[in-house]
Every structure is written in structure tokens, then in C-alpha cells.
Specification:
Helix content: 55-70%
Strand order of the largest sheet: 1-2
Structural class: mainly alpha
Largest sheet: 2 strands, parallel
Shape: globular
Distance between the termini: 45 Å
Length: 372
């Protein structure tokens, strides 16, 4: 079936109204497979606000992730993007300045991430259609994330000039995860409260004690799953202080080349594998602790808010299932394939949560089966 993305070029479409929303919904499916599922279970203003927030953060993330751009350039471009959201007017000249700052190579690319960035002028004005109680948190989180991403882009470039990008401490990991995911948890609490009178001041305050951890749970789970893949880019988010506790001078010492591993004696290899698993187990347990908070956060959402609970339950149970099969972490290095849950598991999570979303006791019981 032909869609709107097939009909427009890179950055040359002036779409407004219903067509602009259609573009936003179609590009979401191109830039996110898993999170699109969660977003599309929502309806109304909550759906629209989280959809737009995701797209804006994806734009910022695309700039931050570009392998060919200098960190100083990223800092400038992210600053231009943040400037758009510092005013409720979302001025056209600020949007134009951001789009003009993007690399020329992106204009020739067919990648959906670049397509989205070059259609900032389509997706950003949509935010003005939402009530301020929804729009303001989206603007705030976009500005804050851009600042955090620029900071870590500069740090990563400085580190990579000497070999690898690494994080020294658990607090450094928490700060990184806060900027890329924890602040999303903060955003969700504001939007969930905006969407229902059932979340009053007292309940919202309780949720705010846990919302950052909701974002961190999903981010640290991804770091665990993706650590081997990240190492191919000479990037390691596993804190150095954890690695030193288990006999590694640096975190990247856990990713030795195949020929080096082959040259080890059986005893050396066994010891090496045990130490790697011990490092990963610490990170897995950190993930579980954040997941504990995230499950508690979800149970604070009024049970009648079916779609909102499902939006939270799906990624949390998927992350928990992933942590279960990863176990003590040794499986991360046991296969060339990334350790991840099957489609059947995803379908089971969706089916069961749709039946039992309202039951805190069912949520606790199902989670405890997975939790070590």
C-alpha cells in the first residue's frame, strides 16, 4: 500500500493539518519498531503528545549519533534544535535555521532518520495544536535532552581520540542514561497527569519519585543487550569501576579479539569468562532494581487507564523477559547473535497484559516469576 512517505522527497514537502499528522504517524513506523507499538496503543492528546515527543527526541538522537560529524558541529546543531522549543511560538525561522544546518549528505539519503530531520518543519508545528498542559512538558524535555546529548557528544569525541569511549563510574552511567531516557520518565508523568483528573497532586508526586527510574530501567536493559554490538564502535557504557572490581583494567578489556581469546589456555579462558559474567551480572542486577521501581510506577497509574498502563507494561515486561534469558550475563558473550526475546514472547506479553492490565496482584505475580 502506497503511503505518504512514498510521495514526498527529502525535505521538500509542505504538509499541514491532517497530512502532517499522517506523515508523523507513518514516519514513526519507519524510525521505531518497538516503541511505535507502545505509542499506538494510546489515543487522543496523550497519543499525539508522546508521538511528537518521540519524533523530536529521535531527531536530536540522529544528530548526536552521526559518525561523520564533529562533536563541535553536533553541539551547534543540537543548540539550534533546542532553540526552537525555548519559545511556545515554535518560530519558523528557528526551524529553518536548524534544517539548513543539517549535513548536505543527509539530503541525498533515503534513511528514514534523515527524512524525519529534514521534515522538522512538518512535525514541529503540530505541537501548537495541543493544549499547553501537553505541549510545555514536550518542549522542556526536548531542550534538556539536547543539552545533555551535546555534553556527552563532546565527551565521547575526546575519549575516542585516545581509543575508546568509556564511562568511569556508575554515577556517570546514571547521568548518561538520565539524559537519553530518564527525562522521558519525567515527561510521561506530566503527560499522564495532564490526561486524567485521576492523577492529582499527591499521586503525581508519588509517581515523580519513580519516573526517572522507569526510563533508566529500559535504557540500562538496552545497554546490557547491546554491549557487544557497541564494542564494535569502540564504545562501552559499562562503568570502569565495575570492571576493575572484577580484574579488568578497562571496560574494553572484556571485548578481546577472537585470536587473542583463542591463544588463551583453557584455565585462562575460564577465568576470563567468569570475570566477564560477573561484570555483566552487576549491570543486570542494576537493571532489575530499576525495573522494580518501574513496575511500582506503573501500578500507580489508575487501573481504569487501560491504554496508559499497557503503554508502560509492554516495554517493561519485554525488558524483564530479556533480563531473564540473559541471566547472570554470561550468555551475552556465548553467541554471535544478540540475546533477545522471540516474537512469540512479545505476542504473549501483549495478550496477557491486555487481559490483566488492571490487576496489580497479577502484575506482581507475573513479574516475580521473571525476577531472580
Amino acid at each position: 500500500m502506497a503511503n505518504l512517505l512514498d510521495q514526498i522527497g527529502m525535505g521538500d514537502a509542505v504538509l499541514t493539518g491532517k497530512k502532517a499528522w499522517t506523515y508523523a504517524e507513518e514516519i514513526l513506523l519507519q524510525v521505531s519498531r518497538t516503541f511505535a507499538l507502545n505509542i499506538n496503543v494510546l489515543k487522543g492528546k496523550l497519543h499525539k503528545s508522546i508521538l511528537l515527543a518521540y519524533l523530536y527526541l529521535r531527531i536530536a538522537d540522529t544528530v548526536e549519533d552521526d559518525p561523520d560529524m564533529k562533536a563541535s558541529e553536533k553541539e551547534v546543531i543540537l543548540g539550534l534544535f533546542a532553540k526552537i522549543f525555548k519559545s511556545p511560538e515554535l518560530r519558523e525561522d528557528d526551524i529553518e535555521a536548524f534544517e539548513k544546518s543539517l549535513p548536505d549528505a543527509w539530503r541525498k539519503s533515503e534513511h528514514p532518520y534523515m527524512n524525519l530531520c529534514l521534515h522538522t518543519h512538518v512535525v514541529v508545528p503540530l505541537l501548537k495544536e495541543l493544549p499547553e498542559i501537553y505541549a510545555a512538558p514536550v518542549r522542556d524535555v526536548t531542550v534538556e535532552m539536547c543539552g545533555g546529548m551535546a555534553k556527552f557528544a563532546l565527551r565521547q569525541e575526546a575519549a575516542l581520540s585516545s581509543g575508546w569511549f568509556t564511562l568511569e563510574s556508575v554515577s556517570d552511567l546514571d547521568e548518561y542514561c538520565y539524559y537519553v531516557a530518564g527525562i522521558v520518565g519525567k515527561l510521561l508523568t506530566h503527560l499522564f497527569a495532564a490526561d486524567t483528573c485521576l492523577i492529582g497532586g499527591k499521586l503525581k508526586a508519588e509517581m515523580q519519585k519513580l519516573d526517572v527510574s522507569f526510563g533508566l530501567a529500559l535504557q540500562v536493559a538496552n545497554i546490557v543487550k547491546d554491549c557487544v554490538e557497541d564494542s564494535t564502535r569502540r564504545v562501552c557504557f559499562i562503568p570502569e569501576e565495575i570492571c576493575r572490581r572484577h580484574g579488568f583494567e578497562h571496560s574494553y578489556d572484556m571485548f578481546k579479539a577472537a585470536d587473542v581469546l583463542a591463544a588463551m589456555s583453557a584455565e585462562e579462558r575460564s577465568d576470563y569468562d567468569k570475570r566477564r559474567a560477573a561484570v555483566m551480572e552487576e549491570l543486570v542486577m542494576k537493571t532489575w532494581k530499576h525495573l522494580d521501581d518501574a513496575i511500582a510506577y506503573t501500578k500507580l497509574i489508575p487501573a481504569v487507564k487501560r491504554r496508559t498502563r499497557l503503554f508502560c507494561l509492554w516495554p517493561l515486561f519485554m525488558a524483564a523477559e530479556n533480563m531473564k534469558i540473559i541471566g547472570n550475563g554470561s550468555s551475552i558473550f556465548a553467541s554471535e547473535k544478540k540475546v533477545k526475546i522471540t516474537r512469540d514472547t512479545v505476542k504473549r506479553i501483549i495478550t496477557q497484559t491486555m487481559l490483566h492490565f488492571y490487576s496489580d496482584s497479577w502484575i506482581d505475580k507475573s513479574y516475580s516469576v521473571l525476577r531472580p
